[in-house]
Amino acid sequence: MNTVNTSAFPHARLAERHRWGQLALGLVCMMAISSPQYVWTLMTKPLMTKLGVALPELQVTFSILVLLQAFFSPVQGALIDRFGPRTLISIGTVLTGLSWLLASHAQSMLGLYLTYGGVGGIGTGIVYVGVVGLMVRWFPDRRGFAAGVAAAGYGMGAIITTFPISASIVTRGIDGTLELYGFLFAAVGLAASQGLRMPRSESTDLHDQTEAATGTRPAPDYRPAQMLRTPLFWLMFVMMTLMATSGLMVTSQMAIFSADFGVSKMLVFGLGALPLALTIDRFTNGLTRPLFGWISDRAGRENTMAFAFALEGIAMLLWLLTRDDAVLFVILSGVVFFGWGEIFSLFPSTLTDTFGTRNATANYGWLYLSFGIGSIFGGPLAALLHQHTNSWIPVFGCAIAFDITTAVLAIFVLKPARTRFLRRH
Predict the structure, then answer these.
(1) CATH topology assigned to domain 9-424
(2) Res 314 pLDDT > 90
(3) How far apart are CA 169 and CA 175, in angstroms?
(4) Distance from C-alpha of 190 to C-alpha of 95, rounded to nearest angstrom
(5) CA dist 389 to 323, 383, 392, 393, 394, Å?
(6) Would you kindly state where each structural domain of the chain is located, as residue ranges?
């Protein structure tokens, strides 16, 4: 891959200095909003006890969180493009922390739905879409890598909080834990978001450099209304829906099926199997995003998709077959998450490669709706499937099938379709 020579473009040298700082601030913002989704599995049993509800009813909270995170993303993306990232992302980080503070006082499922699910979903959605949309603009020459680093903050941020929150639930209880960490998330995210801004004239030079270095012309700048009329967008939408569903079937149910497999209370390397697995998962789920984003910048988006999605499907099959082995449970959980998290770098970079940068944030907001649809199938409907069959095998079977199907679509359908589309334009 050709590299960009910043010495030839004065404005680009200024952008080069600023954009790495922007990436670092975006990473911190993403880390501040990651726990509501990625430590949810630690909350399920305490909340079931506190509120006296069954798992399918409680899992609606998780689906509301992820669904609203995705459902409002087109509007949020347009507002960020209109009013700038600092204002909107500041609001989003505060709302995320506030959702936990309010949830600590919830005494009914409706209260939990409105606070943890509703307020949290809107807050995390603003930050997530805003930061990813901002980074693909700052890094036209390293789009997959930059989107991956930003998304890694969301996937890896809970590494810092998994063990502390697990311990806090034991010592402080669920309400005290939500209250303490809600305040911390809001404070850290608000502080980091104050330095964010949109690239200005220097971004034009970065685009010029990228075109000169690669010998290619940039993709056409499609508005959301134009993009939504293309079959290519809806192919990407279906693919991301399938991958989101398979991954969320794991992230939202892991504490429950690990107990059913009999490994949740076992020790691995002197540590509890479940918190250890969750910590490793946060690391691999974060690492995969910049790594596969970087690989896709060089090897091609669709080729990278096919390998990563197939990897998750194979690892999930092995996970199911060796489910009573605590050591393999921990190791394979990391491999599963390694094969899933890259959807959050590969899909936004592929979308922006295809439909242009001018409306990148708003366009990604529409694609991110697929993640909300995946939350419905990956959360309560997966729990209902398990409840109806009294087995996790059908749930895992669906997830594995989705992974393999999407890998096939990437290489045999998306790749030629995108080639034809870009040639026409």
Answers:
(1) Growth Hormone; Chain: A; (1.20.1250)
(2) yes
(3) 8
(4) 10
(5) 18, 10, 8, 9, 8
(6) 9-424
